[in-house]
Amino acid sequence: MNKLLIVCLTIVLSGCMSTDPYTGEQKTSDTAKGAGIGAIAGALVGMAVSSKSDRGKGALIGAAIGGGVGGGIGHRMDKQEAALRAKLEGTGVRVIREGDNIRLVMPGNLTFDVDSYNVRSQFYGTLESVAIILKEFAQTNIRVGGHTDSTGSDSYNQTLSERRANSVGQFLIAQGVMSGRVSTSGYGKRYPSASNDTAAGRQTNRRVELELVSF
Fold first, then answer.
1. Do residues 73 and 211 make contact, with C-beta atoms less than 8 angstroms apart?
2. Across the beta sheet with 182-186, what order do the strands follow?
3. What is the pTM (predicted TM-score) of this model?
4. Separation CA 198–CA 81 (nearest Å)
5. Please, where in the chain does CATH 3.30.1330.60 lie?
6. Chain center to CA of 206
């Protein structure tokens, strides 16, 4: 069984090597990782539902189906990531790949004025670019999260983070992103990404993040 799973995984991964555009090095793409996981899961299921004499055949069929499903999701997210990086280059928005999910980190100083939850007009173009990609890749849900630094009361920060997340979510919907794909949440100061002990850290913590989750 172990040898069969190794063969399945090797076949899937061998066709999914890519060149990192930033380092020039060969690497296993997220598509390949998803395909590999899908192949192993499919092989196990195929073996479980097959008779003892047909387990090898069942494993191969299951691996092929599972690898195709996992690789399909990874491939879509690979393409979406590349499109977002191209559109958002130089905007200050960070594009972070996390498995089959993508996270966009939008610094608060770019997105909003101080103590305001209205999206800055200077940031409209950036959000419009994000909306274009989100509409093109419609098989993702968008979770919008607002975050603040530790300055001010908990209740004030919570309300501000909720309103900022909602403003970004409503902007995307106004640009034609289906409302059913968009959810918003405010987290106040609960999840800092840097130390609140410095001005630079507090500025980093004032942010809105978009998590793009494939379905």
1. no
2. 94-98, 101-107, 207-214, 140-147, 182-186
3. 0.71
4. 32
5. 90-214
6. 20
What are the φ and ψ backbone dihedral angles of 100, each rounded to 5 degrees? -90, 10
Residue 127 and residue 92 in contact, taking contact as beta carbons nearer than 8 Å: no
Whole-Å CA distances, 83 to 78, 87, 190, 198: 9, 6, 31, 34
Pairing verdict, β 26-28 and 94-98: unpaired
Tokens in use for 18?
């890519």
Fold of 90-214: 60s Ribosomal Protein L30; Chain: A; (3.30.1330)
Strand 207-214 and strand 101-107: the pairing is antiparallel
SS3 content of the chain, % helix, strand, coil (to 5): 55, 20, 25
pLDDT tens per residue, range 106-156: 999 999 998 899 999 999 999 999 999 999 999 999 999 999 999 999 999
- The encoded tokens of residue 37 equal 């996981």
